[in-house]
Amino acid sequence: IYNENFRANREEWELELEGNYSEISKENEVVLHISNGQRVSRYNYIPMEQSSDYSIESIIHKTSGKDANGYGIIFGFKDWNNYYEFLISEQNYFAILSHFEGVLIKLCEWQTSNTINIGNQRNLLKVMKIENEFIFSINGEIVHRTESRDLRGNNFGIIAGSNGSYVLENIMIKEFLTADEQGQETPNNDA
């Protein structure tokens, strides 16, 4: 289990670029402030083996602004040509996008879901990879399933595309080991 401590990695999360900036709040959350209307993200490298099943989850919310282009989590980020986005909007829409070698692949086009807490309310976004399937959920309800693909990188964080302030409360990654993998990590009691 990996649970990001933003304060301990403050220098990795706080940044000012082209009029946009991010900061660590007194609640130990990443707050992303966008003022130029461009798509902005903050992410950090988190070690994760992709050979086992895993889950990635974050609680996010908007504190101000209109999220006309959605906001959510960015994961498996290698560079701006290779990453995934799991986005929500205040109009009860969500989308799941993949960028592979610079080509946009819409894993799930924008569609409505009553599971999204609208306005400035908190939402739990979760991605699970179980065997050969990605399972996406919002606030504990599955909203989409698709064939899994390898992540191109190990950077995880927040992404938003409209002026306003957006909060990433946490990033938790869990790896689910098989019985064989667990056996390899268990001390030998035969000695």
Concise summary:
This protein is mainly beta. It has two helices and 16 strands.
Backbone CA Rg: 17 Å
Main beta sheet: 10 strands, antiparallel
| SSE sequence, one letter per element | EHEEEEEEEEEEEEEEEH
Q: Using DSSP, what is the number of strands?
A: 16
- Given the structure, what is the number of helices? 2
In terms of structural class, how would the helical and strand content be classed? mainly beta
Shape: globular
The low-confidence runs, each spanning 5 or more residues with pLDDT under 50, are: 185-191
Distance between the termini: 29 Å
> Helicity, in percent?
under 10%
How large is the share of residues in beta strands?
over 45%
Rounded mean pLDDT score: 88
Strand and helix layout:
Layout: E1 2-3, H1 10-13, E2 15-17, E3 20-24, E4 30-34, E5 40-45, E6 53-65, E7 71-79, E8 82-88, E9 93-100, E10 103-112, E11 123-130, E12 133-138, E13 141-147, E14 155-160, E15 164-168, E16 172-176, H2 179-185
Antiparallel strand pairs: 1-16, 2-3, 3-4, 4-15, 5-14, 6-11, 6-15, 6-16, 7-8, 7-14, 8-9, 9-10, 11-12, 12-13
Question: How is this structure best described in words?
Answer:
By secondary structure, the protein is mostly beta strands. 6% of the residues lie in helices and 55% in strands. It is built from 2 helices and 16 strands. The chain has helices at 10-13, 179-185; strands spanning 2-3, 15-17, 20-24, 30-34, 40-45, 53-65, 71-79, 82-88, 93-100, 103-112, 123-130, 133-138, 141-147, 155-160, 164-168, 172-176. Strands 1, 2, 3, 4, 6, 11, 12, 13, 15 and 16 form a 10-stranded antiparallel sheet that branches. Strands 5-14-7-8-9-10 form a 6-stranded antiparallel sheet, with no helix packed on it. The protein starts with a strand and ends in a 6-residue tail after the last helix.
